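Field: sequence (string)
Field: structure_tokens (string)

Example rows 1 and 2, in order.
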Amino acid sequence: MEKKKTVGDTADTILIKEQNKKTEIDLVELFFYLETKLKWIALFFATGAVISGLITFFLITPMYSATAKLYMVSASSDTLVNLTDLNLGTSLSADYQEVIKIRPIFEDVIDELELPYSYEQLRDMTSITVVNNTRILSIKVTSPDPKEAMEIANAMAKDAENQVPKLMDTSKPHIIEPAIVPEKKSSPSYSKNIVIGALIGLVIILTILTTIFVMDDTFNSAEDVEKMFGIMPLTTIPESDIGSLSELLEHEGKKKKGLAGLLKNRKKGA
């Protein structure tokens, strides 16, 4: 019984090794198979890029971003800023950032500019960040209208300039950089979307071709039989057109019948 187990274990080990070997060979064959389908791969790659570019151009609304910057000051006098004031201003930058996001400031801007947006919509269009741990706050507004983006950013900065001292009991912040009308859109990126579309097309065609290759279990050569069963076939039948072969046999049969009839007639004549 122990010997049988040993033989069985050995056979399983050999089978596993053969399967691993076949897997490696299949990967090589898959590479060469994909190489024969380069035209399809290139077609899907280009198609994905074109479709993505068309969608980006015709269906996605271009967005523009305008940015205004505020310098937040915390000082005990209007003319003198000491080291304590500087440190305090830096530590309060995050507080300023959150204060500017409050509802009254956004609603004042909506009323002032008569915007067709709600508080939530305008908040989603606005990004308020601290510039590299400084006392400078950046107010960026993104809109499909570049002029509107500039007007909202400047109105936000102006309203923050007036509201922050009242809310935080600090010195008045200063607008150090007003927003201007952006000349270039901030999104979408045509080049980025085209590359993404091309890659999606490439993934789709590679998935399709790989699935076809894996599911194809036909034997195309004697080598395929040897790989699958580990033995060489004794002989192979050459590929041929059965219809043409039958027509050839029929034609040969008619020729033989005609020749036999001719010989028979000659014998009768003799």
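Row 2 begins here:
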Amino acid sequence: MGTGSKTTEKAANPAPVSLEVRLGGIVLRNPVLAASGTYGYGAEYHDFVDNETIGGFVTKSVTPRPRRGNPHPRVAETPSGMLNSIGLENAGIDEFLAHDWPDVLEEPCVPILSIAAGTVDEYVEMCVKVERAGGVRAIEVNLSCPNVKEGGRTFGADPAAVEAIMRGCKNVTGAFLIAKLTPNADTVAIAQGAEAGGADGLSLINTLLGLGVDVERRKPLLAMGMGGLSGPAVKPVALAATYQVCRVTTLPVIGIGGIATWKDAAEFLVVGATAVQVGTALFANPRAMNEIIEGLTDYCVRHGYDSVTDMIGTLERGDLIEEGVAG
């Protein structure tokens, strides 16, 4: 009797709007994801977030071998953001697959595995191991890593290298492959390289290169000197990059950068993103994703949208936006 009553109640009070979006064949219950490096492996936020309410999360990046990360201090607050130079601290792919991956797969939302490496072969080898482990649905390829065979130049700054990585990974895994793009290069060219290599989707932006200085000590705030800038300060850059990339690709794009409120998320969807990732905001407000989901629902209702997909790419007069006129 109790079960039947609940069923009737759900049928009588359907959701006012569908928030479902698709990444290829993957259905997300809503377009809100937690960004890599801010949500651990999903369980770390159980006290604050019911993972059954979000679209999914991207794991902390995993590397071919264990990494201790960079020396401290490796995080510093900045106006409207933060700098970090964590250094991809993790236990390595083998330890991760043996001890953490089974728990990740138990989470009631879509887990996206983030991988990072120093050579094309290492990226491919990691995909092979993940494929053998089973259960992987989506992989985000972190391209903001130094290419150890090419003198340390960042993979993400070279369209040809990005194309090679994505093609190599595509050949060994059936997972939905997402190329995570850096803003510290020609993002449009990198996106085109990723698409040419067989990427199924794109996520952008990764952090901007930044520096903070302690003037009393006349030293950098971070032990490694420069680090990655994230938070509200980068949102206009991220939004512009998302808009530009969405104009040159048919791949689904996941917008990242300074998203803290539903309005932030709505901006990315309106310029063409299929989904968004929330990162730095979670450190100050662990429930930010739930608030964004509620806000997007209300926005769709107010604007008469039956589905959140109806608002994607609806920026008016988009073709008339001029580039390079600042100043």
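free_text_note (row 2): The chain has one domain: 16-69+88-209+230-315.
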